[in-house]
Amino acid sequence: MAPLLRATSFLRHSRLHHLRFPLLLLLPSRSLRSTGPVVASGLDLTNPTYVVWGCNTGVGKTLVSAGLAASVLYPCSTDPSAVLYLKPVQTGFPRDSDSRFVCRKVSALFRRHEGGSLSGLLASDHVLNASRAAAGELLGGRLEQPDEAEDGGAASRGLCMYEETRIGMGEAKEGESKLVCKTLFGWKEGISPHLAVKREGMPVEDSSLRELLGRCLGLSLGGGGDDGGKKRIWRVIETAGGVASPGPSGTLQCDLYRPFRLPSILVGDGRLGGISATIAAYESLTSRGYDVVAIILEDQGLSNEVSLQSYLRSRLPVLVLPPIPGDPLNNLLDWFCESRQTFSSLQAIMLSAHIKRIQRLHDMPRKAARLFWWPFTQHKLVPEKLITVIDSRCGENFAIHKVLNDQEMIIPQFDACASWWTQGPDSTLQIELVKDIGYSAARYGHVMFPENVYEPALQCAELLLDGVGKGWASRTFFSDNGSTAVEIALKMAFRKYMSDHGIHADFHKLGPKGSGTELRVLALSGSYHGDTLGAMEAQAPSSYTRRGLFLDPPECFISNEIWSLSLPDCLRSNHLKPEDTRFSSCAELFCPSRDTSAVAENYANYISKQLSDFAASSHSIQRILVRECQSRKIPVIFDEVFSGFWRLGRESAAELLGCQPDVACFGKLLTGGVVPLAVTLATESVFEAFQGDSKLLALLHGHSYSAHAVGCASAAKAIQWFKDSNTNANFDIERKMLKELWDVKLVHGLSSLPAVQRVVVLGTLLAVELKADGCDTGYASLYASSLVQQLRADGLYIRPLGNVIYLMCSPCTSPHFCSQQLCKLHQRIYEFSEHRRKE
Questions:
Q1: Who contacts 271 (Cβ-Cβ below 8 Å, separation ≥6)?
Q2: Which of 20, 243, 517, 707 pairs with 635 at a CA distance of 20 to 30 A?
Q3: Coil, helix or strand at residue 360
Q4: How far apart are CA 501 and CA 496, in angstroms?
């Protein structure tokens, strides 16, 4: 430790005009595992922050980074500047160190022009972690083996290596520019990072790397501090190798850094073959949602920039650097000076793009309030300041824009309503869906469906009938959304009922009244099936028709840690005991043996009476209802637009009920939630009811985009992904269901809070009904509005249903992440309870 003390003392007392000294500290590497959510605190985008990508290794990323930093820090500037350069992954270390190169070259360029300097420069290079082999190389091989007990046998060392240079200004630090360079992780061999890890050790999880990178991006560089906020600050991240080169874990870097989605500079290739490599790299970035603001490449005499500009159709500029000297002894200072104008142009392009982005983010709420007509929204209740600006999405999280303490922040926010129950992908599946959708769009565009067949539609139908329709369905009818899927199902059921009961309709007058017999829909009160007129016939109360007959179902929930049934008045009986409506677990509640219970007997009597008067909650009443309807040849429709594809922990809610329908509707999670698509599955007997010699006997319903190839391709990928334990860690392959996603103890604790009326948890869904009275209950209630805003500030995008708040994860969301969100919810509802108690 003595050399470190001497060096720091030297720094404190030095009067040298130019100062460079190294500090080296080796520490045992205890853990390189993440301790929290990725980019949990958000990203400050107040100042330009960019990622420098290369279409390959050796195309000049580090030269571009150094040239850009020099342009920002050029000593003739009237105001001090600051540049943070980050190299997350470095191989070939310490012989090769891009952060050291940037630090020293920029310092040398600053020193060359120091005569006209209006400010000084403090430049530093800091290496945070290196493999044991790299650290040993740095110390000339003098690295002792760690004690097994002390170091855990780790093949890595935490490395704290620091080098600093001060140019000009003497001891005066006011108005001084700064260059801070950091290497986060380094390995000795100059090979791909994932291979270096395999050979040298020091594995780094993706989340750990992103967490450290996020912390480094949050470092203060003096802007808005002692210098009065005049300092211009830039942040530059340089990747390793090419766009799709693996990171330390093997994850492609274009996927590794996707949660940040920072704007990008692409260093192209001016050599033979460089046009193809540059275009491929560009498309890899844009297909993942990155914004590339410029391409820059070295002039190799082949005019590659001309072809690139033609391909890009002026979407972004292509800049050309002078040829790089091939002499290894050339210090490149003259080349940097020759390239100064190009780097100045690049800096101006980047700054302009940054300003335009921030301005657009600020303009969006105002324009949205003026231009949009949002569904299910009373606009008078949504002030401009409460409009959420979504910059992007990554897996389960939105990336939203907020101004906090005068800082432009991009903050992750858990999509707790699953964007109206549609969302299923984690960040990995999101990228996979994009690939399949892009391929399908490129291959097919859109082709019409009737009397045609193409692979995405056929594969999707095969997977549906072998999955959610297995054992009962034989036909797939595609439509655009859940509401129309329900309307189609109603048409199927009407025809099937008429066919089975010998009712001969005049099919020239289509509709349920065409035969002179009015057909009605039997459904459950409180259900929702969509907002088209036909779908609204199947839900109460109907604002448009009176064709529905609605049964009041019992409701199941958790209260004070106990699963319970709440019975409507029509099902209450003096013969029922308290234990008839209380259960030890969700599994007991769903047990088929309950069909012979006292409560089930009441169900059967109630349903039989309604059916005899008419001539479809709790799963037990639904089973009995299905049985009673099918015994009377009344077609049964399951609306699984919401519940299908693992939303409730099973691929189909029919598995929970233990019975099968005649017709079923699916949507939302069908495609993973990326694009709209719906299907109505039917039995062969339902299909046969539409057979005949006249086209008028056919099911005359369709959409221009029926079975569109893009949606079918997305559905095929999602269906397979969710039930493959290799891709979805939550899938229990033995029980064919999802593992428990919500911690039982946390759920029970939530159900016991004074402000909580009841809790329902099933599969990916957790719903909490808050205790409320009178006008504070129901869909129109604003009772939970203050709680909602607090939860949004905590990083949960909540959209309540009156006094009901719910969390909805994806089938792929980790239980650990679910527990984190549940803890936030518990804390806020506890505070809400205390506040209400004191009122």
A1: 300, 302, 304
A2: 707
A3: helix
A4: 9
Same domain, 813 and 723: no
174's CB contacts (< 8 A; 6+ apart) are 226, 227
Alpha helices for 531-593 (secondary structure H): 533-536, 586-589
- Are 221 and 87 members of one domain? yes
Q: Which residues are CB-neighbours of 732 under 8 A, at least 6 positions away? A: 725, 738, 739
DSSP structure class, residue 754: T
Residue 289's closest CA among 435, 443, 442, 439?
435
Cα–Cα nearest to 521, from 616, 649, 638, 415? 616
User: DSSP code of 222?
Assistant: S
How far apart, in whole angstroms, are the C-alpha atoms of residue 144 and residue 706?
Answer: 68
User: Mean pLDDT highest for which of 23-32, 569-578, 697-706, 805-814?
Assistant: 805-814
- Reference 617, options 653, 641, 593; nearest CA is 653
Q: Among positive and negative, which fits the CA dihedral 593, 597, 600, 605?
A: positive
β-strands 292-298, 264-267 pairing: parallel
Of the residues 596, 615, 632, the one at which a domain ends: 632
For residues 655 and 467, is the Cβ–Cβ distance under 8 A?
Answer: no
| Strand-pair partners of 285 | none
Total tally of structural domains belonging to the chain: 4
Pairwise CA distance, residues 767 & 349, whole Å = 48
Please check whether residue 591 is in contact with residue 619, taking contact to mean a CB–CB distance below 8 angstroms: no
Element (H, E) at 16: none
Please indicate, yes or no, whether residues 572 and 474 belong to a single structural domain of this protein.
no
For 717-753, write each residue's pLDDT tens digit: 999 999 999 999 999 999 999 999 999 999 999 999 9
In a domain, 450, yes or no: yes
Tell me which of 357, 372, 398 is where a domain ends.
Answer: 357
* Same domain as 229, residue 95: yes
Cis peptide before 94 (omega within 30 of 0): yes
Q: Is residue 701 one of the residues assigned to a domain?
A: yes
* C-alpha distance across the termini of the chain, in Å: 60
For residues 763 and 744, membership in a common domain is answered with: yes
Q: If you write DSSP's letter for every residue of 396-417 in order, what string do you get?
A: TEEEEEEEETTEEEEEEEEETT
CATH number of domain containing 760: 3.90.1150.10
Q: Say if residue 95 is exposed, middle or buried (CB neighbours under 10 Å; 0-12, 13-18, 19+).
A: exposed
Query: Which of 671, 664, 678, 668 minimizes the C-alpha distance to 721?
Result: 671
Q: Which domain holds residue 528?
A: 515-554+565-632
Do 497 and 635 touch, CB atoms closer than 8 A? yes
Measured N-to-C along each axis, helices 98-112 and 61-73 cross at an angle, to the nearest 10 degrees, of 40
* Distances from the Cα of 394 to the Cα of 226, 664, 691, 794, angstroms: 37, 31, 47, 18
State which of 323-332, 380-389, 599-608 shows the largest mean pLDDT. Answer: 380-389
What angle, rounded to 10 degrees, do the helices at 785-793 and 815-838 form? Answer: 140
In the prediction, which pLDDT does 13 show? Answer: 31
3-state secondary structure of 755: coil
Considering the domain architecture, whether residues 313 and 227 belong to the same structural domain is answered as yes
Same domain, residue pair 698 and 753? no
